[in-house]
Amino acid sequence: HKTRVSVGQLDPQVPHAWPAQSKLSKALHRIRADDLERDLARADSAMASWFASCRLRGSGAWLHALPKNPRFSVSSSLFRVMLCMRSMAKIPGAALVRNCVCGFTGTSLRFGVHWFSQCRQASYKTARHDAVVKVLAEVCSKVRMLVREGESANWIRGRPDLRPFDMLVKPSADISSDWHGYDVTVADPTRVGLVPSGARYFHSGKAASRLVSRKKARFRSLVQQHGLTKPAEFSAIGFEVTGGLGYHASAWFTEVCATAMELGAGVPEDQSTWSARDFASYHLQLISFTIVKLSALGVLNGIRRSTADFSHGSGHNS
What's this model's pTM, rounded to 2 decimal places? Predict the structure, then answer.
């Protein structure tokens, strides 16, 4: 009967009128998750932010991906890191790292958090961003959209060095329509130093929303200052390191899946598994898996480079 859960009054005299067990179970899990998130917020803001991000749509979709599909197949060591990240457990091998190759020291090294996006030398955040853009471009092409990367276009008048779009799309059935440009971002909810004043941690999706707002403001400023060389719509969509979809990314994905249903788009037989038989489930897994895989690769790269740097330094000192 908690107001934050949409379950009607439960009358013990008429149990046949109760909601389905699945709905009651979901409500109970949500109540428990809310309580746990509140407890975590008192003890550890980074852990609370990570837990809240893990509650986003799609953040756990990669856990349902099956290695029968080569796109979901990774080495056991990489998958182990992905699982450790999910539960925020200590990363195997990270205990050997005294300090990062960039010079950073701290307990976040043990959990791999430093290499999600903070490290300027070992993080794979650029590679992760580019990989996500490729997947999104693939998703759009599946629903009969013309797709091209905005990096190759000159959109800001007099400033060809500025790139406001990661990809551009338009309906293939209406090539005369304006391009719709997307700026894609993957936010790191563990960077609690960026939490807005008055908040203790990043609530679910707030890390992504923060970056989306910044990108929208930047685009408006560019248009006001320079103008566009040709008409184009603009949208910013944000994901989070957990693999979850922020509010704007979720709205975009819902729209794409609705179009896919209208077109009858599905999953190729050689890529389909029992956990990903339809367009929405398969591509949600693909987006989520790509984000978490590249984040985990960044962690492994950070550990490898840091331990190698430490070993080299020890040998030099000896």
Answer: 0.91
Question: Nearest to residue 81, comparing CAs of 120, 118, 124?
Answer: 124
Token digits of residue 239? 């994901």
Query: β-pairing, 232-240 with 167-171?
Result: unpaired
Residues ≥6 apart with Cβ < 8 Å to 96: 303, 307, 310
Cβ 219 vs Cβ 227: under 8 Å = no
Burial tier of 9 (Cβ tally within 10 Å: 0-12, 13-18, 19+): exposed
Residue 279: what residue type? Answer: F
> Which residue reads 């740097």 in tokens?
309
Going from the C-alpha of 122 to that of each of 158, 275, 298, the distances in angstroms are 34, 34, 7
Q: What is the pLDDT along the chain (318 residues), one digit of tens a residue?
A: 555 666 667 788 888 878 888 888 888 888 899 999 999 999 999 999 999 999 999 999 999 999 999 999 999 999 999 999 999 999 999 999 999 999 999 888 999 999 999 999 999 999 999 999 999 999 999 999 999 987 766 899 988 888 899 999 999 888 889 999 999 999 999 999 999 888 999 999 999 999 999 999 999 999 999 999 989 999 999 999 999 999 999 999 999 999 999 999 989 888 888 899 999 999 999 999 999 999 999 999 999 999 986 655 554 443
Residues 6+ apart with CB under 8 A from 51: 36, 37, 40, 88
Neighbours of 247 (CB within 10 A): 17
Helix or strand holding residue 175 (H, E): none
Nearest to residue 129, comparing CAs of 31, 236, 56? 236
> 57 forms bridges with which residues in the sheet?
245
- Where are the extended beta strands (E) located within the chain? 145-148, 167-171, 179-187, 232-240
